């Protein structure tokens, strides 16, 4: 009986150890879905990036500068941004598990690299987690000063903000292909001023540039307050990038979880007005095993589909980048047409005796009386949903006097052609052609194989051998 007894004792010891240390979850699905173990050569996209940069600098930037577009939307595209990796942004109230989720995705728990987490609001900084040869922390001031990084435009939010910006370089395979940004939790009933920097503007900057936006909620404390409402207003137009995550789902009973799921949609409905509701993932993103007697299979499936989503963004990064630049060009073009229209109306209304300032104030106060916005819609293929709001132009012309602009018809040169023609060519031909050239490389023409029966898939000419 002795051997039996001894084995009994060993299992007792194991049980005791297990009780003190929570069971860790298996990570194999993470590695498989995100293809972390594959030794695949990086796609050679430098040629495409160079062409993209050239189109931007020669066809879009001249008009952008001439009509000071970045003062309207504070959106200037730097070279660092054209070449940057896809960015995944984590937003949501405090203590919903944003930092824990990043720790989990990168497997940083119990390593010196892990992000600090806890029940109190812990992340008060905007933390950018990126790839580097070894672990190191970079001050926000240094990140903003480095023009090769895509964060140099953040300098305009002031020193107070840069102190709240921090970069962490981690040698991790996933970060070679994507950058994570962890944001301070949204704290309800708290005034903007207390943060000491324009929190909403900073959020807007990141939202405009994110390829994927995870809005994380904790089902045990669900309240949609003011700061969150503001945030969702800022997310308008980015609905296709938003993924809503109901985290810590294994901390509730099924029935309770269903109620929370309904309540979440109910409270978000007025904030997101699109026909296609954003995708909601219900799971628990941290390294500990799911609570017993909860829907482990469902949670695991949800987690895998979220990881597939993330992988998709990495695979499509070039397409997204080109689409982003094209979207930007469309906005710049509309802005130029509008300023041109304001200027034309101003010139028409001015007589020898009129007071220029009064004439222009009339136009800015009530642009509809002069059909400024309507005429843009009538004569150009502009969607009414893309028009900026009228108020923005009051501020814009408050800083930039109308007389400091030139008409579009005067912005042409014998050699360089007209600014407007160049941007239109970029929107309708150059950028779509560039997009097509990637498509060819990614999805080889299967038809030709069917015809010739070549058997193997054609070589991808955009990948290194």
Describe this entry's structure for a reader.
The chain is built from 18 helices and ten strands. Helices cover 48% and strands 9% of the residues. It has helices spanning 2-20, 28-33, 46-66, 70-73, 79-83, 98-106, 140-145, 159-162, 199-209, 226-234, 254-268, 296-315, 317-349, 356-365, 372-379, 390-399, 419-442, 446-452; strands spanning 87-91, 126-131, 136-139, 165-170, 179-182, 212-217, 242-246, 279-282, 412-413, 417-418.
Key terms:
465 residues, 18 helices, disordered N terminus, disordered C terminus, glycoprotein, membrane, signal, GTP binding
- Computed over alpha carbons, the radius of gyration is 26 Å
Which H/E pattern describes the elements? Answer: HHHHHEHEEHHEEHEHEHEHHHHHEEHH
Indicate the low-confidence ranges by residue numbers: 2-19, 443-465
Specify the structural class: alpha/beta
| pLDDT averaged over residues | 78
Helix content: 40-55%
The order of strands across the largest sheet is: 3-4-2-5-1-6-7-8
Which overall shape is indicated by the principal axes computed on the Cα atoms?
globular
The description of the largest β-sheet is: 8 strands, mixed
Helix segment tally: 18
Q: Give the strand tally.
A: 10
Per DSSP, what share of the residues sits in E-state strands of 2 or more residues? 5-15%
Distance between the termini: 64 Å
Subcellular location: Sarcoplasmic reticulum lumen; Sarcoplasmic reticulum membrane
InterPro entries: Dynamin_N, EHD_N, G_DYNAMIN_dom, P-loop_NTPase, TRAFAC_Dynamin-like_GTPase
Keywords: Glycoprotein, Membrane, Sarcoplasmic reticulum, Signal
GO molecular function: GTP binding
């Amino acid at each position: 009986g002795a051997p039996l007894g001894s084995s009994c004792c060993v299992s007792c010891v194991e049980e005791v150890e297990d009780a003190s240390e929570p069971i860790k979850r298996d990570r194999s699905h993470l590695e498989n879905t995100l293809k972390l173990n594959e030794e695949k050569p990086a796609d050679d996209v430098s040629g495409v990036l160079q062409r993209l940069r050239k189109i931007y600098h020669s066809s879009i930037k001249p008009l952008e500068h001439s009509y000071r577009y970045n003062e309207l939307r504070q959106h200037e595209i730097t070279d660092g941004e054209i070449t940057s990796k896809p960015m995944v942004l984590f937003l949501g109230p405090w203590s919903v598990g944003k930092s824990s989720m990043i720790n989990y995705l990168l497997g940083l728990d119990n390593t010196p690299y892990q992000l600090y987490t806890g029940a109190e609001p812990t992340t008060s900084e905007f933390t950018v987690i990126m790839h580097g040869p070894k672990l190191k922390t970079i001050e926000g001031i240094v990140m903003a000063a480095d023009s090769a990084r895509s964060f140099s435009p953040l300098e305009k939010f002031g020193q107070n903000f840069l102190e709240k910006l921090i970069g962490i370089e981690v040698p991790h395979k996933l970060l070679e292909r994507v950058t994570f940004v962890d944001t301070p939790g949204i704290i309800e009933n708290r005034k903007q001023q207390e943060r000491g920097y324009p929190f909403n503007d900073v959020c807007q900057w990141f939202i405009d540039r994110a390829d994927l936006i995870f809005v994380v909620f904790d089902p045990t404390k669900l309240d949609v307050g003011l700061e969150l409402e503001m945030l969702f207003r800022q997310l308008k137009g980015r609905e296709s990038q938003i993924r809503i995550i109901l985290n810590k789902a294994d901390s509730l009973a099924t029935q309770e979880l269903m109620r929370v799921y309904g309540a979440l949609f109910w409270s978000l409905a007025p904030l997101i007005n699109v026909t296609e509701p954003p995708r909601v993932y219900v799971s628990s993103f941290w390294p500990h095993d799911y609570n017993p007697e909860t829907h482990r299979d469902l949670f695991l499936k949800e987690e895998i589909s979220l990881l597939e989503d993330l992988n998709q963004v990495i695979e499509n990064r070039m397409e997204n980048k080109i689409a982003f630049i094209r979207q930007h060009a469309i906005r710049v073009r509309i802005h130029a047409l509008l300023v041109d229209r304001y200027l034309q109306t101003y010139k028409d209304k001015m007589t020898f005796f009129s007071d220029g300032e009064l004439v222009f104030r009339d136009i800015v106060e009530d642009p509809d009386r002069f059909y400024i916005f309507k005429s843009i819609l009538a004569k150009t293929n502009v969607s009414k949903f893309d028009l900026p709001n009228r108020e923005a132009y009051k501020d814009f012309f408050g800083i930039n006097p109308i007389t400091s602009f030139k008409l579009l018809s005067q912005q042409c040169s014998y050699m360089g052609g007209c600014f407007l023609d160049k941007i239109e060519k970029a929107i309708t031909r150059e950028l779509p052609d560039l997009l097509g050239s990637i498509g060819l490389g990614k999805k080889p023409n299967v038809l030709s194989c069917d015809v010739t029966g070549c058997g193997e898939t054609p070589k991808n000419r955009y990948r290194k051998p």
